[in-house]
Amino acid sequence: MRQETNCVLRKSGRAMQEHTDGTAVPVAHEAELPQPGSFVTVDVAGAPLLVVRQDDGSIAVLSNVCRHRGARVELQPSGRRKMFSCPYHRWCYGRDGGIRSMPFDDGFIGVDRVDRSLLHRASTVRHGIVWTTTEPGTELDLDTDALAALDSTTLLHTSRTQLDHTLDDARATLPDGTSVNGLHITDSGSHLEVRTLWASGLRGETSELALWILVPAGAPATDHDAAEARWRSLTA
Ligand code: FES
Question: Which PANTHER family match (predicted)?
């Protein structure tokens, strides 16, 4: 029997507010970042972000905005890199966001390289989900107990869909109760479908929907088959 759970997380004991006022947003599943240098790019509330697995195994959320003249540094939606090279003038950043090279750096004598690192956003991983904030400088303090259902699951598939609608319009196309910046979990019996929706575009004129299909550890082959069949039906 299908069960629906709508998890609007609470931050410091208060109900999280919607939209773009400094709330937490789930931006990736950690299994999307299997190796050091694995990354995904997302736009959250007008901010291009780069979610990167670090060499020590942790995950960082960086601003995907070059510190030279503000170009978008990484253009691919996902992949793996040793360094991130801005396509405009080839400033290179490490996986931790630090400057590695500035071509023609004679012109940048005296520039403090530490000051030109990609900016870090607060982030945390809870129950396999990577969270960050919609506002730079905001701390994350989340009560995520409601997400325990995600423990001991394996990520089977991921999809990210750009929607040409505002959040309010996009929500009308989603299952009842899908929360903005929260997680909507559907337990089908054989697998979990986890959806989240956040504002994108410079002024929130578009939105992005992420879907993760998860299978419980040790699930029988029939459950995997059911999850695969569901995935095919969702992506047909
Ligand atoms: S804008 Fe990135 S190197 Fe110039």
Answer: CHOLINE MONOOXYGENASE, CHLOROPLASTIC (PTHR43756:SF5)
Q: Distance between CA 98 and CA 114 in Å, rounded?
A: 7
3-state SS class at 90 = coil
Q: Whose CA is nearest to atom 4 of ligand 1?
A: 89
The answer to whether 211 and 195 have CB atoms below 8 angstroms apart is yes
How far does the centroid of ligand 1 lie from the alpha carbon of residue 125, in Å?
A: 30
Q: Is 93 in the pocket of ligand 1 (CB under 6 A)?
A: no
pLDDT (0 to 100) of residue 121 = 92
Q: Please tell me if the CB atom of residue 68 comes closer than 6 angstroms to any atom of ligand 1.
A: yes
Q: Could you state, in order of their start, the residue ranges of all structural domains in the chain?
A: 2-235
In sequence order, the 6+-apart residues with CB closer than 8 A to the CB of 115 are 67
pLDDT interval class at 235 (50, 70, 90): confident
Inter-residue contact 181 to 25 (CB < 8 Å): yes
pLDDT tens digits, one per residue of 145-166: 778 888 999 999 999 988 888 7
What are 139's two structure tokens? 């701390």
CATH superfamily of 2-235: Rieske [2Fe-2S] iron-sulphur domain (2.102.10.10)
Contact 91, 67 (CB under 8 A): yes
Structure confidence at residue 17 (pLDDT): 32
Q: Which of 118, 119, 85, 115 is nearest to 102 (CA)?
A: 85
Q: Ligand 1, closest atom to CA 71?
A: 1
